[in-house]
UniProtKB/TrEMBL annotation:
Residues 82-148 form a coiled coil. Residues 490-607 form the Centromere/kinetochore protein zw10 C-terminal domain. This is Centromere/kinetochore protein zw10 homolog. The keyword Protein transport does not apply. Residues 99-182 form the Centromere/kinetochore protein zw10 N-terminal domain. GO terms for cellular component: cytoplasm; nucleus; RZZ complex. PANTHER family: CENTROMERE/KINETOCHORE PROTEIN ZW10, CENTROMERE_KINETOCHORE PROTEIN ZW10 HOMOLOG. It comes from Vespula vulgaris. The keyword Ubl conjugation does not apply. It comes from the Eukaryota. Residues 245-451 form the Centromere/kinetochore protein zw10 middle domain. One of its GO terms (biological process) is mitotic spindle assembly checkpoint signaling. Keywords: Coiled coil.
Length: 651
């Protein structure tokens, strides 16, 4: 038990010694002296003490080094008591060691040598209790000393903390400068070894160090010099990379020469070498600029001619892609366009199948620069022209859909587009809608071209033979018919009309004939397209031929006759086709009679007439009648009857 107690005491002392290890202490300040001077006039306040030497009962001298800061101020006497805690601790430590040996001897005598020494045991216990008391007193004195010196240590700790922060900043700046130096060395070395990816990564690392907002590098005088060195290295790398790009991806025939008929694209290096260059440009964020220019060249000199011109495309054994312009005015068929485009993308896939990052290939990077222009040009200038314009052509459109889907599938396979970017899907999935849209659009264009024709190009309209009443059949039935209408009623009299008016009517009838053989949805669209033709005629002719209608009376009369001619046929046009249209349309109230009034008003307006009399007409007539009545009163009984009638008629 005593030995365990001794071990505990030694542990406590070791902990105290570790906490109190310091190399310097402050001498006490004498009253009336400056804080940086000693009582003897010295200017050094921080001094080193020589550790005292203690002799214990014949044992070797024990040197104790103390750096404990001791400062006690006497409130009444003004004297300062210097306490050497390390000396006291060493004395206690020596006593504990001695006590341990005594305890060991005691245990040997009692349990090994079987000697009874009770008196000595009690003395050892008493000695242990005394040492325990001294330890408690010593701990109390240490605590009091720490409290006294705590306030004086705060400022020193703050200074030490500030010094530590400054050291950390200096260390961090030193590390950054070393990193920048390593980057500069590695960039020069990598460029000599043609390791473009490593060069680009080192440039990025250098840029991040220089542009870090949390760094204090900007405060250094050398910062501008390092920044300038980075700019020179960066520009040198870009210049060298651009030169290599032009050397390895070579174009011919791009001169501004209209007579140039051949353009070639030649990849002069292996895929591995091009891959390292492309990835290097990607890391310095300059690949997009090169791809933009490269894609624009492909669109202008390869894709656009393939779509819009008759040309020949082939790839030679030397991996040279060649396009030869044959006839710039001849529009190629869709099969040739899709075949040549597929040949182009196969060539690009073979030579630019480079994985850049995140499993993205170079073709994927090219998509944003090309897809929009490719989709617009291919759909509007090629695929849209393959859409059928009749039911017969619609039945033969299936091969076009299959080849279009095959081309899109190949673009997905090589990674140029994804399943979400199938830009031709609209045409392959909605062919019925596109079919009727194209028909209606073509019909409106055709009607517009007819309307623009000259009005003076005319023909003579002769009415058809009027229908006669079946007199013979009715006479047998003893039915009498009172005919109050002329046989020419509801017939347009003989007159001159423009050829364009007859062409408009023939076009309307052809539209209705097409509607009779179409589906319900298409028939509805065609019917309303037919109505739009007449509306466009009534609105466009007065504007397009305005100058002639204002100056040439003949054309005014012809336009009037045209409007009456069309209005006359519109009265019965819907009735003529009602039973021929699909059943769903037969249930609807399909008519053109509302447009009859519109055409008549337009025709009368051209002659300066109106279909309705103004409200002032009645008042004018009443005034005339009243004037005649007044003349009757004064003239009838005076003038001969024949003279009276002649005078009233002239008035």
């Amino acid at each position: 038990m005593i030995e365990e107690f001794g071990d505990l005491v030694l542990t406590l002392l070791d902990r105290i010694l570790k906490e109190e290890k310091q190399d310097f202490f402050f001498l006490p300040e004498d009253e009336g002296l400056p804080p940086n001077e000693s009582p003897n006039g010295g200017s050094v306040l921080l001094a080193t003490i020589t550790p005292p030497t203690i002799l214990l009962e014949g044992k070797p001298a024990c040197h104790v080094t103390s750096s404990q800061q001791l400062r006690h101020a006497g409130c009444e006497t003004g004297q300062v008591e210097k306490l050497n805690l390390r000396e006291k601790i060493s004395q206690i430590q020596e006593e504990i060691v001695k006590l341990k040996y005594d305890v060991k001897d005691f245990m040997d005598d009692n349990y090994i040598e079987f000697s009874s020494k009770l008196t000595k045991n009690q003395r050892l216990v008493s000695k242990a209790e005394i040492l325990t008391k001294e330890m408690n007193d010593l701990q109390k004195r240490i605590d009091d000393q720490i409290k006294i010196e705590l306030s004086g240590s705060i400022k020193e700790l703050q200074n030490l903390s500030q010094a530590l922060k400054e050291s950390n900043v200096c260390l961090h700046l030193s590390n950054q400068l070393l990193s920048l130096n390593e980057c500069i060395k590695s960039i020069n070395q990598y460029q000599e070894e043609q390791r473009y990816v490593d060069t680009a990564k080192s440039l990025c690392t250098m840029q991040n160090l220089l542009d870090n907002p949390e760094s204090d590098l900007q405060d250094l005088e050398i910062y501008n010099a390092i920044k300038e060195e980075y700019k020179n290295l960066h520009d040198s790398f870009l210049s060298h990379a651009s030169l290599l790009w032009d050397e390895r991806i070579c174009w011919t025939g791009l001169e501004n020469n209209k007579d140039e008929t051949v353009v070639t694209l030649h990849i002069k290096d292996k895929l591995e070498n091009i891959e390292d260059l492309i990835r290097g440009l990607h890391y310095v964020n300059k690949l997009s600029d090169h791809l933009d220019q490269f894609s624009e060249t492909i669109m202008s000199h390869i894709i656009q001619p393939i779509i819009n011109e008759h040309c020949s495309v082939f790839v030679s054994k030397e991996n040279i892609f060649t396009i030869e312009y044959i006839d710039k005015k001849q529009i190629p068929i869709y099969k040739s366009v899709l075949h040549n485009l597929k040949l182009l993308f196969r060539y690009l896939h073979e030579h630019f199948n480079v994985i850049i990052d995140d499993n993205q290939t170079l073709l994927m990077k090219m998509q944003p620069h090309m897809l929009e222009q490719l989709a617009e040009s291919l759909t509007m200038n090629c695929i849209a022209k393959t859409i059928p314009s009749s039911n017969t052509e619609l039945k033969n459109f299936e091969p076009v859909v299959e080849e279009t889907n095959e081309f899109q599938s190949y673009l997905v396979e090589i990674g140029f587009i994804t399943e979400e970017n199938l830009f031709l899907k609209e045409y392959t999935d909605n062919i019925d809608k596109l079919f009727i849209d194209k028909i209606c659009q073509d019909l409106m264009v055709k009607a517009k071209n007819i309307i623009r024709k000259d009005l003076h190009d005319s023909i003579k309209h002769i009415p058809e033979t009027p229908l006669k009443f079946p007199n013979d059949e009715l006479e047998n039935e003893d039915i009498s018919i009172h005919r109050y209408l002329n046989e020419s009623s509801f017939q347009l009299p003989t007159c001159q009309i423009s050829k364009s008016a007859k062409e408009i009517l023939d076009l309307a009838k052809s539209i209705l004939d097409e509607a009779c053989d179409s589906s319900d949805a298409s028939a509805v669209r065609l019917f309303y397209t037919c109505r739009n033709v007449f509306e466009m005629y009534a609105g466009l002719v007065p504007e397009h031929h305005k100058k002639f209608l204002e100056t040439i009376p003949q054309q005014v009369a012809l336009f009037h006759n045209n409007c009456m001619y069309l209005a006359h046929h519109l009265l019965t046009l819907a009735h003529e086709y009602r039973d021929k249209l699909p059943e769903s349309l037969q249930q609807l109230n399909l008519t053109f009679t509302d447009q009859t009034l519109i055409l008549r008003n337009v025709g009368l307006a051209a002659l300066g007439q109106v279909s309705e009399l103004p409200s002032s007409t009645e008042r004018a007539l009443r005034q005339c009648i009243r004037q005649l009545e007044l003349l009757k009163t004064v003239w009838l009984d005076v003038l001969p009857i024949n003279i009276y009638c002649r005078a009233v008629g002239k008035s």
